[in-house]
Write a structure and sequence with these properties.
This protein has 233 residues and is α+β, with helices and mostly antiparallel strands. It has six helices and five strands, in the order βββββαααααα.
Length: 233
């Protein structure tokens, strides 16, 4: 079956002497692995399309008996020009790619999540809101799209004994999360959020992800991202 779909590249790594394997989040087919034959050859100009974060449009002939699909045509949908100039943005987006790659099943279509992921990357590219706010938005959106929407009215979350986090007693934190989830970014000023509230929100979202997604606390890139978020900048 011919698949014609936009995709975000999640991860790419070498395969053999000249090829690459690329895992992509496609809008129509969810997470799919591709083999890019000869991509490392000097005469082949296809490798730049499969850098992590690349927003591409691909056509391939899907075969059920093949773990690695073969792309017949690829082109950029959009090129991110500004993100690479910020180490913070690149680090946070690397974590977002790893979270997405880790959590998705192969060939499980998630078109709404795909559109939301593109929206998150575009927010980093446009620099229209604070990077930490974008990451919080991603976390809350990701939980919702995976079926674990945060309930701001009722606290059904089972806290661990050593956790001292209770956002349901923090009206300002609830206000921020509500507007993040509703995409009312203009109603939130990151600079006006108190350091204590920033840390509460960051830790709360992290613990929600750990609670709902098995093994989440072992993701290496998120530990780095968490340190950045807790710098409260």
């Amino acid at each position: 079956m011919i698949i014609d779909t936009p995709a975000i590249v999640l991860k790419t790594f070498p395969y053999g002497e000249t090829s690459l394997i690329s895992r992509c989040f496609t809008k129509k087919r969810g997470k799919v692995s591709f083999i890019i034959k000869g991509a490392k050859s000097k005469k082949n100009l296809i490798a730049p399309y499969f850098q992590p974060l690349s927003y591409i449009h691909i056509i391939y002939n899907e075969k059920d008996n093949r773990d690695l699909q073969i792309i017949s045509k690829v082109q950029f949908v959009k090129v991110w020009l500004k993100i690479s100039h910020s180490l913070k943005k690149m680090t946070l987006l690397q974590s977002i790619m790893e979270i997405t790659d880790y959590s998705l099943e192969f060939n499980d279509s998630q078109p709404m999540l795909f559109e939301s992921l593109v929206e998150v990357i575009e927010l980093y590219e446009s620099d229209s809101i604070n990077s930490n706010l974008v990451f919080w938005f991603f976390e809350s959106m990701f939980l919702s799209e995976m079926g674990f929407r945060i309930d701001l009215e009722h606290n059904d979350y089972e806290f661990k004994e050593d956790e001292q986090i209770n956002l349901y007693e923090e009206p300002e934190c609830l206000y921020i999360l509500k507007h993040l989830m509703n995409k009312d970014f203009d109603k939130i000023s990151f600079e006006e959020i108190m350091p204590r509230e920033k840390k509460l929100i960051s830790n709360y979202l992290y613990n929600q992800l750990c609670y709902h997604i098995e093994g989440f606390d072992h993701l290496k890139s998120f530990k780095v991202a968490k340190n950045i978020l807790n710098d409260l900048q």
